[in-house]
């Protein structure tokens, strides 16, 4: 048998006509020749599933969605116009249109022959690629004898059961679906039967068609629990044929159940004495009692008592149809920590088709659901060999995580509403709640941590990006790329690397085909910078028709005199200066000498034809605009900024490789209710201040001396920075302006005819009478309601228009906010959103507590290598086209993405759709070209190429999906829907998409099996947990502590996140620090984000790229506390500190090094918040434990997986 996982274009156009140039902003009485009144400067006097709601008007993010229309006469996928010398606004002389761009109880009957089937042959198409998550029995493979060798079951690490769980009880082996009673076979796929496999058992058991009659002794009735168990769902008639080949029972598991309750003489269908009295049994039929599953969910159906069956009310709405055969069996590697009694029965790991290891061995005269309870008590939860004495499971052969997945099954039932989570820091059962029956064991579900660690183990190191290569390593894996024709995955990632040939196949899969493009992402230290190609006056070589740039996919023909475009198939003459002969393979003789012919990513130096007004650009400028109002001065911001500005900021201005100093020009503006410009020309002894009080029609009072080179005016700038805090120390201005400040910066750059960035340091909502004045519209009660979009969308179009003006002159805006109250981030963040800028928010800023964080962020933002005045176009080969765009940018047409500035931590997401059938032999290609100005004022063109395979089988597509990118795309789609729909509709849409994807795989790719099985594709076995993380995240729904501004802020950040950041944001990293390896320099292995994984004697570090928490258990070691904090107990730890003191001992140094290393991996400085167990801040920490229920009622991982399975069954039925 073959074991298989059962889970198993830049650019024509894009720039508006250049604005009118000429001196100062026009329309003001003061012309360029008039000087604003000057006065002596330093005179000692100055100083955030039912039905969607009604349609809503489009929201601001809506303008990012662009539908590509085909203009008359345009070539498919070709842009409407060309950029550069062939027909674009830069070249008015170009001709128009030149740019075209599974013991039978007594009385039961065996399954009819027609229900005994073999797996379809198609299942063998996915060897070793799909992982299975089976919820019920699977049919046996006919003719296969039983196996009794230790099986390759999903292993669990040995260890004590969690507190509050019942100890294991001895009992006969289980007959539940897929639960082997003894050691499982470890023979390899396709091997002959094992000699010690044992004879087939004659009473191996019929299908579990009587799995759910009422249990008269099962416990007190449940008031709203639902109908008798016989009606809990469709009988498992398809659960598989008799288990004739299931193997002998375990030698140590066949003892009678001395403590199992009443005799089981009536083990047939009536099941009147079917098991021990379930006085404390929780949900019936082995359903998982969610003893730690948190508060009831809002959509969990009618409340249920803690009693067992019989049941008399309607079924639970959350669980849907009874899930007697519907529990998930997880795919993937073994998880950590045994919990023998926390689940109905342990799930096994499945392959693509049923094998003998999937068959359940009989338990004499035991009904199936009773056998499930014994299985959980008498066997190792994941089937690794015989149990240790005392019932603990043996460790897996070869160690933790070494065994490949193997088949099995799990019967589960969704948790009853109302099963609360154990209070934090408390062991044992929940107070006032009876001991619950076993529930689904999260250890048996796919683990994010296990997948990450497996990928790191198997795929770290070199990755070769060959043409039409396979999917790259995960973003969490430390790898470096060797470019062999496809661009580095750090620069461009796809949701899939094997594209369905037809639009119908892609639509049927429900997997979005999209690219996440980060053109300027930081490369690995082992990777070389992108090569720069300088062709002189010839400029970049490109196709005459679609204007695509030369790339490795374009073959040369006619002896090298022409090349064929792989995007539009047009033949283009090779310029004489670029000609080279071909070798015997048809490659140019200089193939390996030219990056554009052999690499997937490279740069061209652009000519004047690619510049505004056909003039080479000037070096860019940085303008620093400082709020000097009362709040800014009182918080210490002004003093901190000016005292540290030179050494922490100006000393790190970006410079080009090989240059000794930065060519960036700098300028300074202060403001409150009026604007203060500073002349810092090098020949001045003291800086001069020019005041602009007319903020209704702002203008720039000077050019010469306003933007200067640092090295030339260093002394004057030092003097300015030393005197600004003195001059505004007595400021009493509480009302500030913002719109005119940004407008002035734009006008200054426009007048200087250069691009650049504005760094705006702002404290409060702009309430002063000036353009851009806002009103307070905060209403946190609207968050989570159908009206929340009214406060998450801009209240006016002023800042949207202002952002567009910034883009037109190549100006990016980085906005640093220091609010003490509501500032309407949804509105003012339009400027950094449209310009590709960055938004930072430091609520209740205090210089002594938050200063280091702020300065670190500012320094990082200043020294990044930035692309100014950028425009990007995505070209695709025939049959596909770019349709929707997501991110923080501006689009003036349907093809060009325009940004005032773009840096390494920004990305653009492009959704691609079919417009024709693809050829499986030819594949498909995508080229993203970004035209930009670098930090020395040189115009360059960065080209990124990616090629794909095409397929006619959905299984091939599912095998090549990249889940982290899929989640990144789904989150951005959710943000856009939030601004146009209702929160419930958004969450329902995301959940439905998850269910549709898994249902499509189940229907089209998985081996036919019982409807009670949840089957997951290997590459997407984490889809349910990640989808639940997106739904629970603060971008779609926040807790009671989330403000309106925080919701808007997070939406802004996620909208432009690259995949590496979004992966950690949605599933935070939780690192144990109490048992770190003192002899290692690497980070400790992360654990799953659940409170169950946390021990009160431990210390844990949690981070998601934006926040960092250090959680300290109440019983942590005194030695650890003394070594790190210098105190003897957790109660003595100062939780108000945001940094750890560096003590002179190895433990302190190791912990501090871990924290610094984590910070260095993120783009933003994460403030450390210390949380003690059971302290008032602990709920803030708990909201990031994504596998638990949330305080806002969001489902836990277990709950959500059961819900997804119900949705899949509904779709398949």
TrEMBL record:
Sec23/Sec24 trunk domain span: 617-861
Pro residues: bias regions: 51-60, 92-113, 139-148, 159-173, 383-398
Domain Sec23/Sec24 helical: 963-1062
Biased composition (Low complexity): 149-158, 174-195, 423-436
One record GO biological process: COPII-coated vesicle cargo loading
The keyword Protein transport is assigned to this record: yes
Protein location: Cytoplasmic vesicle, COPII-coated vesicle membrane; Endoplasmic reticulum membrane
Domain Gelsolin-like: 1083-1153
Protein name per UniProt: Protein transport protein Sec24C
Species, as recorded: Ridgeia piscesae (Tubeworm)
């Amino acid at each position: 048998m073959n074991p298989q996982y059962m889970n198993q274009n830049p650019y024509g156009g894009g720039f508006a006509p250049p604005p009118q140039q000429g001196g100062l902003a026009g329309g003001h009485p003061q012309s360029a020749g008039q000087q604003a009144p000057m006065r002596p400067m330093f005179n000692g006097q100055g100083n955030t599933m039912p039905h969607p709601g009604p349609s809503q008007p489009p929201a601001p993010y809506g303008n990012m969605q662009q539908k590509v229309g085909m203009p008359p006469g345009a070539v498919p996928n070709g842009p409407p116009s060309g950029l550069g010398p062939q027909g674009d606004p830069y070249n008015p002389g170009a001709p128009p249109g030149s740019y075209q761009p599974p013991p039978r109880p007594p009385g039961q009957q065996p399954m009819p022959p027609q229900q005994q089937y073999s797996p379809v042959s198609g299942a063998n198409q996915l060897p070793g690629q799909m992982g299975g998550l089976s919820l019920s029995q699977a049919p046996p493979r006919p003719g296969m004898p039983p196996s009794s060798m230790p099986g390759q079951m999903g292993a669990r690490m040995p260890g004590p059961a969690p507190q509050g769980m019942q100890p294991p009880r001895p009992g006969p082996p289980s007959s539940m679906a897929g639960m082997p009673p003894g050691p499982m076979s470890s023979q390899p796929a396709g091997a002959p039967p094992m000699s010690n496999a044992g004879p087939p058992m004659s009473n191996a058991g019929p299908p579990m068609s009587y799995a759910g009659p009422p249990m008269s002794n099962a416990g007190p009735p449940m008031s709203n629990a639902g109908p008798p168990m016989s009606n809990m769902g469709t009988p498992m008639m398809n659960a598989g044929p008799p288990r004739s080949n299931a193997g002998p029972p375990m030698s140590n598991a066949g003892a009678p159940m001395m403590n199992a309750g009443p005799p089981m003489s009536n083990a047939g269908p009536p099941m009147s004495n079917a098991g021990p009295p379930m006085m404390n049994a929780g949900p019936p039929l082995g359903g998982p009692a969610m003893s730690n599953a948190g508060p009831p969910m809002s959509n969990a159906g009618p409340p249920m008592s803690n009693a067992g069956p019989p049941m008399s009310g309607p079924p639970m709405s959350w669980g849907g149809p009874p899930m007697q055969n519907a529990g998930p069996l997880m795919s993937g590697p073994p998880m950590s920590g045994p919990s023998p009694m926390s689940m109905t029965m342990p799930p096994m790991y499945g392959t693509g088709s049923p094998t003998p290891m999937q068959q359940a061995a009989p338990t004499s005269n035991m009904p199936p659901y009773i056998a499930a309870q014994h299985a959980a008590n008498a066997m190792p939860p994941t089937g690794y060999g015989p149990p240790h004495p005392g019932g603990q499971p043996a460790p897996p052969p070869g160690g933790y995580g070494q065994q490949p997945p193997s088949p099995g099954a799990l019967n589960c039932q969704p948790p009853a509403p109302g099963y609360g989570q154990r209070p934090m820091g408390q062991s044992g059962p929940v107070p006032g709640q009876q001991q619950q029956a076993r529930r689904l064991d999260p250890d048996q579900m796919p683990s994010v941590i296990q997948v990450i660690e497996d990928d790191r183990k198997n795929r770290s190191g070199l990755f070769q990006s060959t043409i039409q290569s396979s999917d790259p390593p995960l973003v969490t894996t430390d790898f470096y790329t060797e470019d062999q024709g496809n661009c580095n995955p750090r620069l461009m990632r796809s949701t899939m690397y094997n594209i369905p040939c037809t639009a119908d196949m892609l639509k049927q899969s429900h997997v979005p085909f999209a690219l996440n493009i980060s053109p300027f992402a930081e490369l690995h230290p082992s990777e070389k910078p992108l090569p720069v190609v300088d062709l002189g006056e010839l400029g970049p070589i490109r196709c005459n028709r679609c204007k695509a740039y030369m790339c490795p996919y374009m073959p040369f023909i006619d002896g090298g005199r022409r090349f064929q475009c792989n995007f539009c198939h047009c033949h283009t003459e090779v310029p004489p200066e670029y000609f080279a002969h071909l070798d015997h393979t048809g490659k140019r003789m200089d193939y390996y000498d030219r990056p554009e012919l052999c690499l997937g990513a490279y740069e061209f130096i652009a000519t004047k034809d690619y510049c505004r007004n056909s003039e080479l650009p000037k070096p860019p400028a940085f303008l620093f605009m400082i709020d000097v109002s009362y709040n800014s001065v009182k918080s210490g911001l002004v003093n901190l900024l000016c005292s540290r500005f030179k050494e922490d900021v100006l000393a790190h201005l970006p410079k080009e490789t090989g240059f000794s100093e930065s060519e960036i020009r700098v300028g300074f503006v202060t403001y409150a209710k009026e604007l203060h410009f500073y002349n810092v020309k090098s020949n001045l002894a003291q800086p001069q201040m020019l005041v602009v009080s007319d903020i209704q029609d702002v203008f720039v009072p000077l050019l010469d001396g306003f933007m200067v080179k640092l090295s030339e005016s260093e002394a004057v700038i030092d003097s300015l920075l030393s005197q600004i805090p003195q001059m505004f120390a007595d400021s009493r201005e509480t009302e500030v302006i913002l719109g005119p400040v940004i407008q002035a910066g734009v006008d200054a750059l426009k007048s200087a005819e250069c691009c650049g960035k504005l760094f705006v340091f702002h404290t409060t909502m702009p309430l002063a009478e000036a353009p851009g004045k806002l009103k307070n519209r905060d209403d946190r009660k609207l968050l989570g309601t159908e009206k929340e979009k009214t406060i998450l969308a801009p209240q006016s179009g002023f800042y949207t228009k202002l952002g567009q003006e910034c883009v037109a002159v190549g100006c990016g805006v980085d906005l640093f906010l220091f609010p003490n109250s509501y500032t309407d981030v949804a509105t003012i963040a339009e400027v950094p959103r449209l310009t590709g800028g960055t938004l930072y928010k430091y609520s209740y800023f205090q210089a002594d507590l938050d200063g280091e964080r702020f300065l670190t962020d500012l320094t990082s933002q200043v020294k990044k290598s930035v692309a100014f005045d950028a425009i990007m176009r995505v070209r695709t080969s025939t049959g596909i086209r770019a349709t929707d765009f997501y991110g923080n940018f501006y689009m003036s047409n349907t093809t060009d993405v325009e940004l005032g500035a773009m840096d390494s931590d920004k990305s653009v997401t492009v959704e691609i759709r079919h417009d024709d059938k693809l050829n499986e032999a030819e594949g498909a290609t995508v080229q993203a070209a970004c035209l930009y100005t670098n930090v020395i004022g040189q115009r360059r063109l960065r080209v990124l190429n990616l090629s794909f395979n095409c397929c006619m089988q959905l299984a091939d597509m599912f095998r090549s999906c990249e889940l982290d990118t899929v989640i990144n795309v789904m989150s951005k789609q959710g943000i856009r829907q939030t601004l146009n729909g209702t929160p419930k509709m958004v969450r329902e849409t995301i959940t439905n998409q998850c269910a549709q994807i898994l249902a499509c795989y189940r229907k089209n790719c998985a081996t036919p099996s019982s409807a009670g099985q949840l089957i997951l594709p290997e590459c997407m076995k984490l889809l349910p947990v990640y989808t639940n993380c997106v739904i629970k995240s603060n971008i779609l729904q926040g807790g009671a502590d989330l403000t309106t501004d925080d919701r808007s802020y997070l939406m802004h950040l996620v909208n432009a996140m690259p995949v590496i950041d979004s992966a950690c944001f949605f599933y935070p990293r939780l690192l144990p620090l109490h048992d770190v390896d003192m002899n290692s320099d690497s980070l400790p292995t992360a654990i799953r984000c659940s409170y169950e994984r946390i021990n009160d004697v431990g210390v844990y570090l949690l981070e998601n790229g934006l926040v960092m928490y250090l959680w300290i258990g109440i019983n942590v070691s005194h030695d650890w506390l003394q070594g790190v904090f210098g105190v003897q107990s957790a109660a003595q730890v100062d939780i108000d500190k945001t940094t750890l003191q560096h003590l002179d001992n190895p433990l302190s140094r190791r912990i501090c090094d871990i924290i610094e290393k984590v910070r260095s991996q993120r783009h933003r400085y994460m403030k450390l918040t210390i949380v003690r167990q059971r302290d008032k801040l602990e709920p803030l920490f708990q909201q990031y434990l994504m596998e638990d229920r949330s305080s806002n009622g969001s489902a836990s991982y277990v709950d959500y997986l059961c819900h997804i399975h119900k949705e899949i069954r509904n779709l398949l039925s």
